[in-house]
Amino acid sequence: MTIEELKAAFPKNDALAPAEIEAKAEDLGVSKTSMSLGQSFGLSLMAGAFIAMGAMFFCLVVGDPDLPFAVQRVLGGALFSTGLLLVVTCGAELFTGNTMIVMTAASKRISWGAVLKNWVVVFVGNLIGSLVIVGLVYLSGMTTMNSGIVGETMVSVAAGKMTPDWLTLFAKGIMCNFLVCLAVWIAYASRSIADKMLGILLPIAAFVACGFEHCVANMFFLPMGLLLASFGIAPAGLDPATLSFTGMLYNWSATVPGNIVGGALFVGMMYWAIYHKKNK
Hints:
Layout: H1 3-9, H2 18-34, H3 37-62, H4 69-80, H5 82-90, H6 95-98, H7 102-106, H8 112-140, H9 149-162, H10 166-189, H11 193-209, H12 218-230, H13 245-279
């Protein structure tokens, strides 16, 4: 058997090279914007639910006051990566990851209108999927775990996302999706589920542990906190009235554009500028 025949019989198991990832990302931009509205919306619902379940897992860990601060944050971040692992392995459309389809538009393979349409549909789908999990988590009684500390933690997390100044939230949004899209980039390079799991773990753990802002995760954190606060649930020293619907919109007004900058410019367009012209 010749070397060529051996290569054909045994597929490559090493990761894609960076230039190959860029080409794959452009191709994915075409496929993502070519899906029917029903497909795109359905997969967006799934992504919102997946990320919400990762956020739910995070709250369980952070709700343990016996853990040291750094252990809480790193362990919680590692478990939060469950959400993105489900997205990249099970098939789902996530707004923050889809910020990178600007690469395909920059190559003139899709229109900028198609990019905007995809973002709107996916964002709305992610929000609805997240809200379904908010309702199910509340009905499940998970918030009463650990003598109610888990629920109080959810309120505390939400309050902490409504109070920083706008520029701080914007910067946190950039840093978050910089790391998230690098995790997605690694997943594009991976050839097995184990590769994807290990590849996304540290970038996602880093953004969560450092307190950066993910607008889709906040589709769980903020409504969940607001729902519990409306029933008077809050940790000692925190007034439930500090959580509000306007505070939720305020957070998104900074984190959504921050996430777009972090994903579309810091990852997508940066790698497009480096590798697309070389491919040409």
